[in-house]
Amino acid sequence: MKALAIIGFGPRGLYALERLVYHLVMRKQKINILVFESKELGTGAAWNTNQPDSNLINITERALVDLPSRPKTIYRNIEIPQFPSYHQWCEFSQNELEPDTFPQRRKVGKYLSERANSIIDVLKSKSDFKLIITSIKTIDIKDNKLILSSENRTWKVDDVLLTIGHQSTKNSEQLTEWIKYSKSNAKIKAYENTYPVSQFESIKNQTNISIGIRGFGLSMLDVMRYLTINDFGNFKITDNHTFEAQYYKVNKQQLELIPFSLDGLPLVPKPLNEHIDKWYEPTDEELKYFKTSITSVAQTSEDVNTIDFLLKTIAEISARVFLDLHDNAVNHNCDKNVIKTVVLNWLHNQDYQHSTLQNNNTNTYNLIKNYIEMALGEAKITLDYCVGQVWRHCQPTLYDAFSYANLKPEIIEDMIAQDERCKRYSYGPPIESMQQLLALVDAGILNLDFVNNPDIELEDNSWRLTNKSQNNKGVSIMINSVLDSPKLLEVNSPLVTNLLQHDLISPIHSKLGIETDENAYVKTDNKKNKVNIAVLGRLAKGSVIGVDAILECFGSRIDNWGKAYSEKVSES
């Protein structure tokens, strides 16, 4: 009987097992299944249930309507119970005028954990299923079998599915220097990663301390909240409609947080509610046009040299949406062709300036206020805000059409880079998070003076930050909140480096992840053996697009793998 190993049992591993069982039942097949996981089942690191409530998801609870239920299945004479969709599970109910909710990560993690345990508890009674609590360190091939090794055991299987999520990568030269520096000086401290935020417990309630935060994105917000909801103060909402907040201090604390990034541009909050969000929705016809236009190129044209075929369709939809905003948009007298040209110019260069676009030279505090008011529907909408929301609505279609694209790796890299640039808008946080940020500035705790790419020098007992106005500030603690992109050749986890050394995986591009086919199986240059390894998730970035979204963990690509694997078993 064939044996399959699923390595990693976070959200993708969970859904892969569910879809695998479904397709095995459909074909009346039997296999041995081994699931390997060393931590909490179903959640992965991002959704573990032990993290604090201050870690928020940046997806509206409303959008989790696409996190599907699991139907009841009879597998090998045992019943795998039905499990509700996320909305059924949390009894979600909301009218379109109510503010969108953004749940804690641990709440979504609780759903995933319960779902995972509900299938594992049933399957582990079968002799042909094993849950093995360990980390796989190496994979090798011998006699066309895959040999999996932990620190003290080995297993032999026919196929492997890797769903191992985010892997550690080599630190940048700057971060490497900082860590080395901090290890040689007991008076300072550098943190390589943001998570778990509980690692900052020892500095959470210190006084007279200045902390630098490398990065100005979603992870920075989690660090900010964790450090400031403390024994000295907390947030209080002063306006339930706008989520305007005040940071009130119950005890005196001299805490200063100093975030910074390469461009200093802030995150852009999502619209307040479904009603406002609908202003930016493409029509069904536009989404169909969008998918047809980019699929016809992405899946058939190897000779494309730019991503303009994608950007032009986005510009077409965005121009229509912007013009339909009428009085809700900034004042202008531009026709559709002019708007399309502005959108294209801005997508190519977000420093491009036009009267319809938000001026990024505005100071950071006012820039955030402007975007909050747009998100509330209380200020005139700029074209960049509009395009960012349209991009978000187009992302699921974009990810589907671009995955396994028949394009040059360089074009795929450009498309991913464009999506990353737009994430400041499309992956934006709730309004409440940005109001909290402003409240901390008002309270004198968050310092935005160094947010835009400061010079950083190492001193005896601090990092010295100097901004473009030549103001400077020393910090004794540095936290890295930048999540590295999944460049396969930069990953330094033992399993991935082992697979590279044995020619069992290879990157689609030097700056991207593992090259896989449309059924998630790796493409390699290994001439000696057929490599029966499939990869789903972040490590396959480039072959697939949109790997960081929770809803993609429950998408069609996982089902495609399950179906393809069951067909392969039938043929063997």
UniProtKB/TrEMBL annotation:
Pfam families tied to this protein: NAD_binding_9
Protein name as annotated: FAD/NAD(P)-binding protein
Limits of the FAD-dependent urate hydroxylase HpyO/Asp monooxygenase CreE-like FAD/NAD(P)-binding domain: 5-167
Record organism: Winogradskyella poriferorum
Lineage: superkingdom: Bacteria
InterPro entries to which the protein is assigned, alphabetical: FAD/NAD-bd_sf, HpyO/CreE_NAD-binding, L-asp_N-monooxygenase_NS-form
